Amino acid sequence: MWFWLIPLLPLAGAAINGLVGKSLSRRAVQFVACGAIFAALLLSVASVWTLTGDLDAIEAAPGLTIDAEARSIERTLGVWIPGATGSDSLSASDGALDVTWGFTLDPLSAVMILVITGVGFLIHVYSIGYMHDDPGFARYFTYLNLFTGMMLILVLGSSFLVLFVGWEGVGLCSYLLIGFWYEDIAKASAGMKAFLVNRIGDFGFMIAMLLIFTNFGTLNISRVLGAIETDFLTQTALLTAIGLLLFVGACGKSAQLPLYVWLPDAMAGPTPVSALIHAATMVTAGVYMVARVSPIYVAAPSAMLTVGIVGAATALFAATIGLAQKDIKKVLAYSTVSQLGYMFIGCGVGAFAAGVFHLMTHAFFKGLLFLGSGSVIHAMSGEQDMTKMGGLRKKLPVTFWTFLIGTIAIAGFVPFAGFFSKDEILWQAWESGHPWLWLVGTLAALLTAFYMFRLVYLTFFGKSRASEEVQSHIHESPKTMTVPLMVLAVLSVIGGGIGLSPKFSLVGWPQFEHWLAPVFAPAARIKEALAHGAVHQAHPSAATEWLFIGIALAIATLGTFLAYYFYRMRPELPARIATRSGALYRILRDKYYVDEIYRVVFIHPLLGGARRLDGFDKQVIDGTVNGAGIGAQVTGQIAKMFQTGYVRNYALSFVLGVVFILWYLMVR
Amino acid sequence: MADGLMEFVTFCITTAVAIISALFVVFHRNPIVNAVALVLHLCCIAVFFLLLSAPFLAAVQIIVYAGAILVLFLFVVMLLDLRAEMSRLRGSGGQVVLASGAVAGLLALLGIALRRSRQTFGLDLSAGEGFGAPEQVARALFTGDMIAFELASILLLVALVGALMLTQAHADPKER
Amino acid sequence: MVATDYYLIVSAVLFTIGVLGVLVRRNAIVMFMSIELMLNAVNLTLVAYARQFGSVEGQVFVFFVMTVAAAEAAVGLAIILAIFRKRRSTDVDDASLMRW
After folding, report:
1. Which of A217, A502, B23, C49 could form a disulfide with A92 if both were Cys (CB 3.0 to 4.6 A apart)?
2. Is residue A383 helix, strand or coil?
3. Which residues of chain A are within 8 Å of residue C23 when distances are taken between CB atoms?
4. Burial of B1 (0-12, 13-18, 19+ CB in 10 A)
5. Which of C3, C13, C73 lies at the smallest CB-CB distance from B69?
6. Cβ-based interface (< 8 Å): residues of B facing A
7. CA A259 to CA A283: how far, in whole Å?
8. What pLDDT digit, counting tens, does each position of A328-340 carry?
9. Do A659 and B116 touch (CB under 8 A)?
10. Is this structure's pTM higher than 0.80?
């Protein structure tokens, strides 16, 4: 089993491009980078294929642990932090931390690696065209490979600490990539902002790890999760604390309230970066992590409910901001925050598989949308303001059609991918007894459809509002950019076919939930145990299910129509409404002034404190040190006065000394 | 009785002269006056020596000190022709004040010391007849303190050579 | 016989006068003379004690003191002469090389 090479291939690519990339030709750099990812992709496919087969047939090897029931293969590569006990044992009696480098392949991580390497590969290819003229070509691909490698470590890690390595690694790479054009101070600051906000989340994650270690004695994920079922079911308080703290980390990485502020600013990076990091992969790390430790959340219902509530609130909140944005990438950014909220709604109501399913489909269509916007920006010579676009439909046909497909998918129309995943989440929200979450989610869906089609109408329809000069340069993007768009479009269409509920799955295709069942089985068991055999709800009728499907479709249609009305039929209306509603419009456009509030509440006091400390450092500490020097100087000046050079003064000193000694000896 | 009285009177007169001449040495402006006062002072010391049964030393005092060292002083004074620059008495003000203070303190302490040691002295003296005669001194010098005597002569030789070297004119550096 | 104490008192007075002279006068030669004054006072003390204890060692000591005083005077005056040649002054304060 070679699946442990999967993360290492991109890392090797990063190393090569990082060390010698500057002296290689453009072709060589792009071959190394894309080749590494492609190899990782092939290896992922092969590994997943093996996973679908008979696990017992795999021959045992040292460091290989196979659990057929959980359908997981764990491969340890060596000891990282050697504890006294010698292995990740559960009863570390002397409290020694023991961590090994290990990767676990199971259905959940299989989904993730396929998404990461697949979509990642497409984005790498796209980048060849997009970054063609950039002087930092080699550096870009180094960072991109590094990022992919780190993300793979994150999803494959078998220990919390290994996961955390990947976690921090992607945080670092997102900083490097967001601030890629670092000469522009605004862009560099955006990278800093992302990193700092992430760190706040990481802090929660670290405390959670501490709690886990001190209570469970190990950081190995499967062992911890297994222990929950057997020993820790009753320690709700502890599990709630761990769950909430881990979720804080997830909020940072996956841009939920209140730590979402970095994601819109992160649009300062190159568009493929936004596609990879902020649509398909890094931001989904939080969702992956929550899904991975599902037993913790199921055993701590209040924590799980918190996840759901935060997710729903974020979904609605971000959608409202997206309504009033002019920058095409900002709309997509807020849309991402909103969709991540959906995934957490799914996890928050116990529908982990649904949340992960939406993660996958979202990777497809959001990635597509971002890459499409990149194509638009490329064609518009760098313009990102939608009010200056228009009528690109005819000039950028491929971009237009793929973008439209992505928009239909995100709006949730059947039979595109977004419908299946979104519908399942909302249905589960209602089913598990959280009608408010369903309502909020549905509202957000309405807004999503609206602002996405608003984007499409403003950008691609109508008369062009760009300047003459820009218009003359509009051209369709090169093949390297359009082909990934097309592939992603196809995936956005058929992605849902992998299916979720039995009612939808096409004959012969494996069902997604069934595939992930072994991963979430412990959670299901815990749920049963905690329910203490309470009355099992009657299965709702099929009619109710179809009703909800109908509601979802109706919402999507309504949103689309509203967008059509406001931006195609009566395009002068939005401007009038904006001026009429004055303050309301401005609040939305200026993102509820959250950044400004943060600045006043957190940053100013911190900076003030820092300045005071700096002053303290300069005045007091430096002053003391300097003072010591000055003191020595002054002492020297005083002592200098004794060295007059006059012999008589010295003789006087003699005599005075003699007098003193005599006095001391005789009078005492 | 009269002998004791004579001695006492001599002592008093000599003391007065010694102190006054000492003051002249220290405080007079004219260096020649200083030198002559010193001569007078040395003679008084010689008288003291005589009173203290040290005839040999009295003689040596006159011959060596007053006769040789003082003459040396006078030679140098004449050589440098210091009459032209009468040195002023005053140093820096602080120096004088402090010096006066120090000296007063010194005097006081010496007085205290004397006070303390008074008890041990009576008037009985252990010196016998013939004490201080040249013969006695010579005996001690050439037997017991022989080494010191020789070393003293070497010291004088060194001083002689040193003085010569120091005062050599720089006109002929090649010599020596 | 005059008591030894009186001689000691005189000697102390003469010694302090000598110290004063060293500290106050600026002329190097006169300083030297003051030093001779101090030496003589000490000599007086020694001889007084020699008589008191009947030990001729005291007088031998004085003899040597005189020898050393002679040597010292010779060398010291030679130094003063050498300095005088350079600086044309016997003022002790002028012999300072300090700048401040």
Report:
1. A217
2. coil
3. 648, 651-652, 655
4. exposed
5. C73
6. 91, 95, 98-99, 102-103, 105-106, 109, 112-113, 116
7. 12
8. 888 898 889 888 8
9. no
10. no
